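Changelog-adjacent note: as of this version, every example in the card shows the full chain rather than a window. The one below runs 396 residues end to end.
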Amino acid sequence: MAEKPVYAVGLDAGSTKTRMVVCAFEDRLRLLGCSVVESRGWSKGTITDQGAVAESVLAALDEAERSAGVSVESAVVGMGGPSLRGAAGRGALDLGYPREIQQRDVNRVKERATRVQLQADRMVLQFFPQDFVVDDEPGHREPRKTTAARLELNVHLVTASTREHSALVGAVNQAHLLVEETIFEAQAAWYASVKPEERREGLALVDIGADSTSLVVYYDEAMCLASTVRVCGGHFTSDLARGLCISPAAAEQVKLEYGRACADSSERILVELPSPEGCEPRQAPKRHVDLILESRARELFQIVRSELAVVGMDQALLGGIFLAGGGAKLPEILDVAADELKCQSRFGIAEGIADWPKEMDDPEWCTAAGLAMYSAKLKEQSQRQRAAVGWLSRIL
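Full-length structure tokens:
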């Protein structure tokens, strides 16, 4: 009897766009289909209408199923927004006397590391081990089989609003889709775009969304920092709206058609501003448009630099910085990032999925691709566990 096909699905439910990626989990991950629809039910990165969010997810699901030609039952869902925060955690375990560290000891110290005092509306979304401390010796990656009397573990925790998490999961469930796991969106984008051989160097990823910007920082495959930055893509648009005295919709149009993150002092071009019907057409110097955008872009990366300094990674990003999300598509924003952070900068582009089309080599698709890759990782772990149980039952 033929084996049932296994599908890995990622759902990126953003505040402006909802994206879904459907892959077949075979010898390697292969793209079957995808979808992108307008999002509804969000305001400033938080859910204000759960039913509207569910309708957006359902529309994305229907379109993705038609594109892939398969039926989807579950997905790994990304979570972002201003409610996400990072926190350091530490767990300790006294073994009583020097003995060999076992897997159960590692499990116990991990459990203790996640027991942190949180506010009433906070929950641990994910936790990332950094290093083990074996008898006061830090820097251990694999403590098992080591003889010691005390074991400690440093972790970095990503916490979220319980209410926001419940609203997101509830909306996905209303769209007749099971949630396999919820993942920090910036972490998913990092997982998709950073190759394994690059993960031993210090690097950061900034996911610039319309209503929130997320940051993750890694050194030697260990997460050093997860945080949200108060400057997002919507700020660029609102700055233009105020600076040019036009509506937000018109400002978004000007940004997409003419905007750059670096102003040219010698430029004397005038751009036509969108005007309401019946009003006199207006023009503005393109350099003025670019100056507004450059000012906000530099502020964004100055905040990122201050966040890096908190964990001692300022001017230590040997692997550079990756930019993901729709806000990363502003022309010349890579140059501003490189100038402010003094490191190489590049776009976060999904790597490692077969049949990935060239037109989707885009930072906007990075998070959805990473979520699908996480789904494949979970299914691979599940298959290994079932195989282990199968061997045990045959032996018994």
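Structural remarks: The radius of gyration is 23 Å.
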